[in-house]
């Protein structure tokens, strides 16, 4: 959303333009609305004429609406005057709507014909005019009483003179109310502008504060993390040293419990037996290796002879079993 005022952040972003505006207003080269004196006078004159036109239009419209209210009122006692007023008012409205052009001296006997219906423009005599003025006066008094009640002035029970005095003061009261409302609107706009400026200022300050806080936190976290890492490494080093000493102590305890005065002779005897068995086992291994080397030196033919020998022994065994079976059968 675009902002319609120059904020502090804009002035800081565009310092040359801000300085130009400052010099422009200090030297009074132009007014607050950037217009010359003649232009401002012309503008004020046009505005005053415009206000007069609006006031005149509102007054005519008020009378116009009141006349229609009188015509539409079913409680009016003088039916003849009401009918005459209605005919004259409706015919004039139709003439204005149809834009019928008349001469300088219109003929009052001419009738207005619209959609096949003749509307004669009747002349409003003095009695009807006075009656209409009285009805308008009553309508305006009623509207004035309603306005006074809405503005907080109690007029119930007042006599005619006091009511008339209050009604005469009604324009000044309304004018003061409008002026107060305009001043209030202007004050609210100024407050809104100041609030937006303060909001922009506070937002900028808050963002700067958050940036500073972020930098401080990063610096603090880096320092704290470094200190924590150093402390943790020192703690792990101490734990490793303690574990090494504990293992070494446990090793020494095992040695002390194993090699006592009572167990050393037995351990020596066991050691000698183990050494003897170890030497015997090594001798057997060497003998086995020698036999293996001799077998390997014979070559592939020795393996074939061994296989044939095994087969012959198996054949002889089967023959013996067959012979034994035959002998047993012959005996039976």
From TrEMBL:
Q: Look up keyword Coiled coil and say if it applies.
A: yes
Extract the InterPro entries matched here: HAUS4
Pfam families, sorted: HAUS4
A GO molecular-function descriptor: microtubule minus-end binding
Q: Does the keyword ATP-binding apply?
A: no
Q: What cellular-component terms does GO give this entry?
A: HAUS complex
Chain coiled-coil ranges: 177-230, 264-298
**Which example biological process does GO assign this protein?**
spindle assembly
Domain of life of the organism encoding this protein: Eukaryota
Question: What keywords is this UniProt entry annotated with?
Answer: Coiled coil
Q: By its UniProt entry, which PANTHER family does this protein fall under?
A: AUGMIN SUBUNIT 4 FAMILY MEMBER, HAUS AUGMIN-LIKE COMPLEX SUBUNIT 4
Mind telling me what this protein is named?
Uncharacterized protein
Instruction: List the source organism.
Output: Daphnia pulex (Water flea)
The taxonomic lineage of its organism, from the top, reads: Eukaryota, Metazoa, Ecdysozoa, Arthropoda, Crustacea
């Amino acid at each position: 959303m675009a902002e319609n005022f120059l904020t502090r952040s804009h002035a800081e972003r565009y310092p040359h333009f801000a300085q130009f505006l400052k010099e422009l207003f200090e030297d009074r080269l132009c007014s607050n609305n950037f217009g010359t004196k003649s232009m401002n006078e012309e503008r004020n004159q046009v505005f005053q004429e415009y206000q007069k036109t609006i006031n005149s239009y509102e007054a005519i419209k008020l009378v116009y609406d009141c006349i229609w209210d009188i015509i539409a009122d079913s409680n009016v006692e003088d039916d003849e005057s009401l009918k005459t007023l209605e005919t004259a008012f409706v015919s004039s409205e139709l003439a204005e709507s149809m834009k019928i052009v008349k001469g300088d001296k219109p003929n009052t006997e001419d009738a207005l014909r619209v959609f096949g219906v003749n509307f004669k423009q009747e002349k409003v005599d003095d009695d009807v005019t006075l009656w209409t003025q009285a009805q308008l006066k009553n309508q305006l008094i009623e509207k004035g009483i309603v306005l006074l009640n809405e503005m907080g002035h109690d007029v119930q029970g007042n006599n005619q003179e006091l009511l008339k005095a209050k009604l005469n003061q009604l324009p000044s009261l309304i004018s003061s109310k409008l002026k107060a409302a305009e001043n209030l609107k202007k004050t609210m706009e100024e407050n809104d502008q100041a609030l937006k400026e303060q909001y922009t200022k506070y937002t900028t300050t808050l963002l700067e504060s958050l940036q500073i806080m972020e930098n401080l936190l990063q610096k603090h976290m880096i320092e704290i993390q470094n200190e924590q890492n150093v402390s943790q490494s020192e703690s792990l080093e101490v734990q490793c040293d303690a574990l090494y000493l504990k293992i070494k102590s446990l090793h020494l305890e095992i040695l002390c419990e194993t090699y006592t005065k009572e167990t050393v002779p037995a351990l020596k005897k066991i050691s000698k037996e183990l050494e003897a068995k170890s030497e015997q086992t090594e001798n057997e291994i060497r003998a086995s290796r020698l036999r293996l080397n001799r077998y390997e030196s014979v070559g592939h033919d020795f393996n074939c002879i061994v296989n044939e020998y095994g087969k012959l022994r198996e054949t002889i065994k089967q023959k013996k079993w067959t012979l034994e079976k035959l002998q047993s059968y012959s005996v039976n």
